[in-house]
Amino acid sequence: MQKGAFLTIEISDIAFGGAGVGRADGFVVFVPYTAVGDRVRVRVRSRKRNFVTAELVEICAAGPARAVPPCQYYQLCGGCQYQHLEYPEQLRAKTKQLQDILTRLGGFTDALPIRAMLPSPRTLRYRNRIDLHPRADGVYGFCERGKPASIFALHDCPLFELAQDFSQYPLRRADQLLVVRTHDGAPYCYFKNDHNDITSESFDCASGAARGAVCSDYTVGAQRFTAAYGGFFQVNRWILPQFVEVVRAAAEPQPADTLLDVYCGVGLFGLSLAPDVARVIGVEQDAACIDCARDNARAQGVTTAAFHALTAEQHLADLVARGERIDLCIVDPPRNGLTNKAVSALKKLHPPRLVYISCGPDTFARDARKLCDSGYALQTIQPLDLFPHTKHFELVARFTAVAHAE
After folding, report:
1. Span 8-18, mean pLDDT?
2. Strands 223-227, 216-220: parallel, antiparallel or unpaired by DSSP?
3. Domains (ranges, CATH) in the chain?
4. The overall pTM is greater than 0.85
C-alpha cells in the first residue's frame, strides 16, 4: 500500500465526488473514472490511515454501466466526473450518495424518504453559462484537472448550449475570465476577475458589440423571468418547469398562506407560487436580484408579493421581532447552507411547512439534523439532476412542524 504500488481491484460503489470505490488488504481504495463492476489495475497515489487514493492504469474488465465519454477533454478537464457512466447509473449513484451523506453526516438512521432522482430533459447542451480562463498566449480554455494554473484550449464544451469555439474569441482583458451566457435572447458575454467580481458591461457574442447592462430573459413554463446580465439564474433552464412543480408539490400552498421565500433570487419560486397563496415575502441580499424580482412581479401582474434587499439573518430577525406569522417558508441557500443565526430565527418563526432547496447535500444533512432536532419532521426528499455528468445535483426537501405532521 505504499505510493507507486500496483493493485488489481473490483469497483463496488461510487463515492460522492465521483471516484469509484474498491477494497484491498483492509484499505478502501478510491479510483476516479471507474464504474461499479469494473475490474481495474491501479497505481497508489497516496495513503492515509485506512484508505488510499489511486489512479487508473488499466480496465481489465468493464462493468455493465460503463459508457464512452461524449467529450474529448473529459479526463483533462476537471468539470465533469461521470461521463464514463451511462446516464441511469449516474442517477442511481447520486441518489445513493445522498442516502449515505444523510446517514453519515446527518445521523438519520431510519429509512429515508428519498425519491428516485428526476433526470434532466437534456444531458448535453444544457448549461446556459461557462467561465473561460485566459492563457498567456491569448487562448481561452478551462483549467486542467488538479492543475488550476494550467489552462488548455477549449474548442467546444458539449454541456454548454452553444456549440461554438470561443478559444480564439477576440474580446479579452488581461487576467480576466470571459463569461459566456445564453438566454431567451442573443448569447452574450462579459468579464469578471478571480474573485467573481464583474468588471465589464455585457457584449453580444456574434458581433462583440457592447450591450451595456441589459438584462437577460428566461421562460419557465408560462412565466418569464428577467435577471441581471451577470446575476444568478439556474444553469439548466430545461429542467426548471419540473423543478418548480416539485417545489409546489412539496410546499402544498394554500389560498390563505403567507409564503416566505428566503434567498429568493429573482423570484423564481415565490412568484411561481404567488397565485396559490395570499401573499409572498421575498428576501435576498443581492439588491440587483431584488430589483429584477420586483420587475418580474410587475410584468407577471403579481400584486401580492413584496421583496426586500436584506440578508436572510436580518430579515428573519425582523419578522421574529414583529411576531409575523409565516405559514409556508421556502429556503434556497447557497452551497454552504444556512447560518446558525438563520436556523435560530427559523426555529422561532416555526412555520408549519418548510421547503429546503439545496445544491449541497453535505450542508443540507447538517441543517436537516438541526431542523429535526428543533421540532420538524423530514417528510420527503426529491433530488433532481440539474447537472448531468457532474457530481452535483439539487434536492427539494419538505419539513413539517411536528405539531402539524401528517
Report:
1. 96
2. antiparallel
3. 6-61 (2.40.50.140), 103-120+236-404 (3.40.50.150), 129-219 (no CATH)
4. yes
